[in-house]
Amino acid sequence: MSEQNEQRRYHHGDLRAALLEAAEHSLRSHGAAQLSLRDLAREVGVSHGAPRRHFPERQDLLDALAENGYARLGERIRRAVASGDPDFAARVQRATSAFAHFAMENRALLELMNAAKHRPEGTGVPRSAEVAFEPLVDLIREGQERRLLRVGSVEEIGIILYATINGLATLVNNGLIDAERLEELVEIAVDQFLRGTAP
Amino acid sequence: MSEQNEQRRYHHGDLRAALLEAAEHSLRSHGAAQLSLRDLAREVGVSHGAPRRHFPERQDLLDALAENGYARLGERIRRAVASGDPDFAARVQRATSAFAHFAMENRALLELMNAAKHRPEGTGVPRSAEVAFEPLVDLIREGQERRLLRVGSVEEIGIILYATINGLATLVNNGLIDAERLEELVEIAVDQFLRGTAP
DNA sequence: TACCCGTGTTGTCAACGCCTACATATCCGC
DNA sequence: GCGGATATGTAGGCGTTGACAACACGGGTA
Fold first, then answer.
1. What is the pTM of this model?
2. In terms of CA atoms, which chain A residue is nearest residue B120?
3. Mean pLDDT of A147-154
């Protein structure tokens, strides 16, 4: 098949990926509630029934988007922790700042990630979320081992830090804080966090 | 009109309130996405077009629910602060614990309150949200005045505390933490918060 | 070659939000 | 209390959606 002829070969080739990409774009510009399977099908150039093969229900597609989001968020935090000034507090600040930037660049996606509607069995989304937590948890474990933080449940303290940044981002997302203030608020919050968990 | 005859007087009497009540129930049992205006109309016993008089668009009803939620949350926090052991730290713990309980008893509502889709002009929902913040902000202001907390922007510190609890509740809501752990996590978070903001 | 099965198409259904035209009740100035 | 203005509810309809089923295509393999 000639790749230059984009017109309608019967089989799309990689419909699943194409749908996810279109969905990501639609999510970004119109929000999850406005996202329509039939719209995506039109955009990608397939019939309205085709998406069903890859996402039997609409929620399956939303879950895939959320999972993807967690993977990217985790990777981004991981990179932020690894690069730059190796000072511990600086790395924590970079990690949370990376989170905040991700949140502002992917507002609707973050809301989707925070939605309660994921598949109940859900080894999918929750699992990918835990992977995104890992770099923060690792950082806190390291801080405790190096006696920079007081001892305590590493996982619980990591969750609290994650929740704080996520909560601030949520407040920006629904218009209760201006976006420009987020960076500063995160900085203050992390400052307080480090003082509060100091040995 | 005989009040005992519940059947179909042409005018309902207080349709707006009846719709909100039915919506609250539907929200609780099926979530905001499943909430249907026509369903509510059926439940209340009016025609499918009637709700439009009180909520021209579906989002208007969701906003009203969110606003109502903020009012109740604020009131609840206010009461928690006022009653019981007057020790400062104890009052902060009670305030946040009240928040956590509200969150667990109104999961779908909290998600709605955190949604980004409120009316843009929005002197409605954001305003009512700020009212809900007030008791926390007041508490922090008092702490600073009594030299129990280090000085700093009262509003910003209040927002951070609110965001932390809200973030933890969100993690419970989407299944990343077990609900039973919330109380303990909030307690730890508030502990850290008080240490982090100590003078 | 012949078959199989993953993938895409077509047609259908019930439900929804939103709209308009119309009906009925309630309120307010006379 | 009368009568029109206004608020509130009804009836019907339009276009869109998600989900479903029956069918069409075509690449991979025995």
1. 0.92
2. A175
3. 96
pLDDT in tens, B64-73: 999 999 999 9
First-last CA distance in chain A: 66
Instruction: Give the pLDDT score at A2.
Output: 33
* Residue whose C-alpha is closest to residue B134's, from B57, B75, B63, B191: B75
Cα distances from B46 to residues A109, A180, B12, B18, B59, in angstroms, run: 37, 46, 8, 11, 20
Q: What DSSP state is assigned to residue A176?
A: S
The owner of tokens 């902000």 is B137
At B3, is the pLDDT very low, low, confident or very high (cuts 50, 70, 90)?
Answer: very low
Sort out which chain A residues have CB atoms less than 8 A from B173's CB and list them.
114, 116
**CA dihedral defined by A7, A11, A12, A17, rounded to 10 degrees?**
180
Q: What is the DSSP letter of A180?
A: G
Q: State the smallest CA–CA distance between residue A124 and chain B in angstroms.
A: 12
Nearest to A115 by CA among A54, A70, A168, A180: A70
Of B65, B10, B71, which is closest to residue B40 (Cα–Cα)? B65
Largest CA distance in chain A: 66
Averaged pLDDT of chain A: 92
Q: CA-CA distance, B190 to B89, in Å (whole number)? A: 9
Protein chain A, residues 24-53, with a C-beta closer than 7 Å to any atom of nucleic acid strand C: 41, 46-50, 52-53
A81 Cβ contact list (under 8 Å, min separation 6): A91, A94, A95, A135, A138, A139
Across the interface, of B118, B167, B197, the residue whose CB is closest to A164 is B167
Instruction: Tell which A residues from 91 to 150 touch B, by Cβ distance under 8 Å.
Output: 107-108, 111, 113-118, 122, 125-126, 129-130
Residue A179 has which token pair? 């976006």
